[in-house]
Amino acid sequence: MGPLRRLVVLRHAKSAWPMGVDDHDRPLGPRGLRDAPAAGRVLAEADCLPDLVLCSTAERARRTWELAAAEWDTPPQVRHDPRLYGADVPELLAVVREVPLAVGTLLLVGHNPGLGELVLELAGEALDDALDDVRTKFPTSAIAVLAWRGEDWQGLAPGTALLTDMIVPRGTKTP
Question: Can you list the positions of beta strands (E) in 16-142?
Answer without folding.
Answer: 52-55, 77-80, 105-110, 123-126
